[in-house]
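SEQUENCE-TO-STRUCTURE ENTRY
===========================

Backbone structure tokens: a row of integers, each naming the local backbone shape at its residue.

Task: work out the structure tokens from the sequence, keeping to the layout shown below.
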Amino acid sequence: MNILIAAAKTGGHIYPAVSVGSEFIDNSHNVIFLGSNNILEKNALKNQPDIQYESILMKGFRGKGLASKLLVLFNLPLNIYTLIKLIKKNNIDIVIVFGGFITIPVSLAALILRKPIYVHEQNTILGSANKISSIFSRKNFLGMPLHNNNLKKSEVVGNPIRNAFKPLLQKKYDENIHIYITGGSQGAKYLNENLPKILKDISHPIFIKHQCGSGKKEEVVRLYEGFENVEVEEFFDNPNLLIDWSDFVISRSGALSLSETMSMNKGSLMIPLPNAIDNHQFFNAKYVEEKGMGIIHEQKNGIENLKAVINLILSEKKYLVWQKIESQINHTEAAKNIVSSILKQSTS
């Protein structure tokens, strides 16, 4: 079969889509990945030579000014027409969308051509584009249970992540509490500016590995001045090894990063991005907290609260409790389960 997979804008949409595409390739199907021509998409596909890459010029809708929104709507019919031609030319049998505004014209083009549509939502809040696409979909796959939303034709399958994100059980050779800090590929200003000041004055024995993002290393190293047990890098290769090394993780609460951490039986101090659309990062974190695998700090509560939460985690050894709780969702099998479900429906 010929599969069209569409995702754009963020790694949280793109990487799960690539994982599912790779699983289809392993099952001897042809896959086209449709994106919006950005570097993140190309990097995600760098080691996937069998996945064909196509793109359309398209910008997001929500959070934009009136002029930008009008331009997107003006170009929508042309994008749908372009995608109809793409689907016909490549004899696409199935369309799978993962979020981002690109989802809408892809779903509408598939609807016009009566092609089966499948949706994967990574977060606990259904994104606007996926919400529209879910109306036409044959099935809606969920990375986590939705918050206050009973979506029809849905199944919680997890967020597709690499098999590398399984507990490795590395032996610990020191008595320090290991903390892995990550703000994602872009870094996170709030984490970079405040965590060094707090952690270097902590009385507990700790060792920190801090991923600060591109161009931020010099400043973050300066903030840790006088504290020896720290390693700061713009990026770390093999984040699964960092999570496994850690006792707990401090991060934002994007669905993919939380899924990776939970899959390795580690807990998180979660600091949701306060301006995330629909506050979805907070609700992602709330889900994890309710499952007993982390604790939330909201930026609006201030630095003293962040310091108190960190001291609570360390003094009460909450990270040891988190490590004993297994994720109820098998994210490393998500891609396989999605592909299996789609293939089963397509042959029934």
Residues 177-323 form a domain with the Rossmann fold fold (CATH 3.40.50.2000). The two ends are 15 Å apart (CA to CA). The longest helix spans residues 66-89. The mean pLDDT is 92.
